Each structure stands twice: as structure tokens, then as C-alpha cells.
Amino acid sequence: MQSQSSSEEKPSLENIKKKIIVLSGKGGVGKTTVSTNLAVGLAFKGLKIGLLDIDIHGPNVPKMLGLDGLRPSLIEDKLCPVFFENKLKVVSIGFLLPSEDQPVVWRGPLKHKALKEFVYNTEWGELDCLVIDSPPGTGDEILSIIHILNKLDGAIIVATPQKVALSDIRKTITFCKDVNIPILGIIENMSGFVCPKCGTTWEIFPTGGAEKIAKELKIPFLGKIPIDPQVSKGSDEGKPIVLNYPDSAPGKAFKEIIEKIKDKLKL
User: Fold this and answer.
1) What are the φ/ψ torsions at residue 127 (nearest 5 degrees)?
2) Residue 30 pLDDT more than 50?
3) 227-254 residue pLDDT tens
4) Which of 195, 196, 212 is nearest to 204 (CA)?
5) Exposed, middle or buried, 218 (CB in 10 Å: 0-12/13-18/19+)?
6) What is the model's pLDDT at position 120?
7) What's the rounded mean pLDDT across residues 14-37?
8) What is the DSSP pairing of strand 78-80 with strand 73-75?
9) Residue 228: in which H helix or E strand, if any?
10) Which of 5, 161, 187, 189 has the fewest CB atoms within 10 Å, counting from its CB?
């Protein structure tokens, strides 16, 4: 498999200091929830943050941030990101579709072209970090963004405690090593259930599997995010839990994870 380096001449991205991608080996692990909350959390620390949604077939970032229905503007033929709370710059194919029911039926070359536009024909301005939310697996979109950006500063791998999800972690780790992306760490999402009445955490699934794999493979473990009804409620309402329920168990977990990522990237 090819590394991140490429002989193709690319426009400069010197105004974007760091570029990180959030990956998952399978769908349904809460990767977009993690991406949006990380990006929002970093932005509300006073950093200049962009969030790029490269999930062409399932762009959920706009809805999770309460931005669905908005359209980006154009200035001198350059796409201007949509702002979340006037702090976070967001780009997603979801902003360009005629309706949320409209599917995107594209092959690899069209997806590659669209992602290139999102990177190089977008007025990102100066960013401390660009957070990239990806589709599950290691398909076209992820290979394209690696080729387009040429160099990524790190990957965050999201998993849930089920054995099938933990199996996919290993594939994602191998992929990152094959394409020379440094792994910032692993997050175990949906790790236990927090009772909304008493606050007790119940282990619906066996937990700790992601942490065990991290230790085994000597990869940083960033933390566990428990199941909490407020997380899904906030996502449906476009209200990230890091802002609207910061004192909840998931809110506190995200806060700790964000600090770790901030330190690793020296932001």
C-alpha cells in the first residue's frame, strides 16, 4: 500500500497547522459523535478549528451540529464553510444536497474530485487543526483524503466494546501503519450505560477491550465514553454534549480526551 507521500504537486496547506482524521473499522460506533464533539470542544478552547465531513454517502455532521438545511456561500468561486456558533468551520457534502433524502450515487473518481474541492477550493483561512470525520472502513474517501492532503498528523480510532468492533480495531491500526499515519490513540465509545436517575454505570457490554488492545499494541488509550441518553438526544437536536451537558459522564470523558489530544498535537 502507498504511503502518504506523493509526487503529485499539491497546493500549499501551510495555513492549516495540524490535520487529524477520526477512523472506525465498522459503522455504528459513534465516530461522527466523537468527531463533532472533539472539533467543538477544541474550538471552544479558543483554537481555530475546521471540521471536514468526508462521509460522502452518509453525511451526518450537519444534523449533529444543528446546521442541516444551511448552504455554504461562494466568494470568488471558493466555497466558504458553514459556521457552528461562529467558532467552528464546517464543510460537508450534506450542505450541497437538494434534500437530506437525496442519495449520493458516485464512484471513486467523482468522490476524489469532490474531496479535492473541499480541501483546496474552500476558504478555510488559518486553522490550528482540521478534524476529518470519515466513513467506516478504509475505502475510497479515506484513501483519497490521504492522497489529497499528502500528510496527516494523526488518527483517532473509535471502537465499541463488542468483539466484532474490537476485531476491526486491529485492521484499522494495520491500515494506519501501512499508510504512515501516526495513531494519536483509541477511544472506546458506548463503554457502559449511565443510569439517568441514579448515575450508576452498568456494563451492558464487556468493557475494557479497546484499552487492552491499546496496551498490547503499545498505542495510547484516550479514554472511555459511556452510553448516556443525553448523547443521542443532543445529536438529534444538534447540540453537542461537550457544550450542552458538560457535567455529564460523557461530557467529562470528552473533556479529558480533548485535553489529551490538545497536548499530543501541541495546540
Assistant:
1) -130, 140
2) yes
3) 888 888 888 899 999 999 999 889 999 9
4) 195
5) exposed
6) 94
7) 94
8) antiparallel
9) none
10) 5
For 183, phi then psi, to 5°, come to -95, 115
Distance CA 24, CA 29 (A): 7
Residues 6+ apart with CB under 8 A from 263: none
Position 114: which residue type? A
Phi and psi torsions of 106, nearest 5°:
-125, 150
Domains of the chain: 16-265 (3.40.50.300)
CA atoms lying within 13 Å on the CB side of residue 60: 20
Q: Which residues are paired to 51 by β-bridges?
A: 90, 131
Distance CA 185, CA 80 (A): 31
- 177-226 per-position pLDDT tens digit: 999 999 999 999 988 777 767 777 777 766 778 888 999 999 999 999 99
Cell of 194: 449511565
Amino acid at 204: I
